Amino acid sequence: MSTAGTLYGVGIGPGDPELITVKAYRLIRECAVVAYPKKRMGGKSYAHEIVELYIDPAEKEMLGLVFPMTKDPAVLEREWNKTVAACWEALSQGKDVAFVTEGDPNLYSTFIHLARLMRELHPEVPIVSVPGISSVLGAAAALELPLADGDQQVGIIPATDDREAMRRAIENHDTIVFIKVAKVLDLILDVLDEMELGGRASVITKVTSPYEMVWQDARTLRGQELEYLSLMVVSK
């Protein structure tokens, strides 16, 4: 009876290729298969770019996985099943698969759902996650801003158009990191202005990567379009 390979969720940091752990480095070199998020429209994801600095793709099975950007349940189920099946094809042959993900595999990562569905469909597959440095921590370093000290509380909040939920998040934490802030930037700025905190917010795009951009005063971005990989840090 063959033994299934191990599925590793490997966090490789927020963008700077040097922000990869020794363990992550070892695993992507040891695993027979390296899976990575693949862009539909071509071009390489951060994770793909970073991993290619540390391995020779010609010596690995490189498995590009496309993750559906939709809320249609039927499409989601179909595409996710395809993703799991692609990984299972290698795992069922006893090959270890390192799925590399930006940031940390257990913090707003595609690996979370991949691992959940793999456990459901193929419970015999061992699953291991390897922590990585998240964009939240990268932002704190870039801004030279402590996220929390002593008894202070920090919230990591997906930014939405729920105005009252965003207000409560700000009220209930000393520091708030709004991720995926691009689509609702002006709304968040309005809420901050109402709370007289407009000058306490900064925005970072593509943190720690070669394309990083920092705006110490988020108010200067009102009305502008931001990259998807943008976050806001509010420090009260």
TrEMBL record:
<comment type="similarity">
    <text>Belongs to the precorrin methyltransferase family.</text>
</comment>
<feature type="domain" description="Tetrapyrrole methylase">
    <location>
        <begin position="6"/>
        <end position="216"/>
    </location>
</feature>
<dbReference type="GO" id="GO:0030788">
    <property type="term" value="F:precorrin-2 C20-methyltransferase activity"/>
</dbReference>
<dbReference type="InterPro" id="IPR014776">
    <property type="entry name" value="4pyrrole_Mease_sub2"/>
</dbReference>
<dbReference type="InterPro" id="IPR012382">
    <property type="entry name" value="CobI/CbiL"/>
</dbReference>
<protein>
    <submittedName>
        <fullName>Precorrin-2 C(20)-methyltransferase</fullName>
        <ecNumber>2.1.1.130</ecNumber>
    </submittedName>
</protein>
<keyword id="KW-0489">Methyltransferase</keyword>
<comment type="pathway">
    <text>Cofactor biosynthesis; adenosylcobalamin biosynthesis.</text>
</comment>
<dbReference type="InterPro" id="IPR035996">
    <property type="entry name" value="4pyrrol_Methylase_sf"/>
</dbReference>
<dbReference type="GO" id="GO:0032259">
    <property type="term" value="P:methylation"/>
</dbReference>
<dbReference type="InterPro" id="IPR006364">
    <property type="entry name" value="CobI/CbiL/CobIJ_dom"/>
</dbReference>
<dbReference type="Pfam" id="PF00590">
    <property type="entry name" value="TP_methylase"/>
</dbReference>
<dbReference type="InterPro" id="IPR014777">
    <property type="entry name" value="4pyrrole_Mease_sub1"/>
</dbReference>
<keyword id="KW-0169">Cobalamin biosynthesis</keyword>
<dbReference type="InterPro" id="IPR000878">
    <property type="entry name" value="4pyrrol_Mease"/>
</dbReference>
<keyword id="KW-0808">Transferase</keyword>
<keyword id="KW-0949">S-adenosyl-L-methionine</keyword>
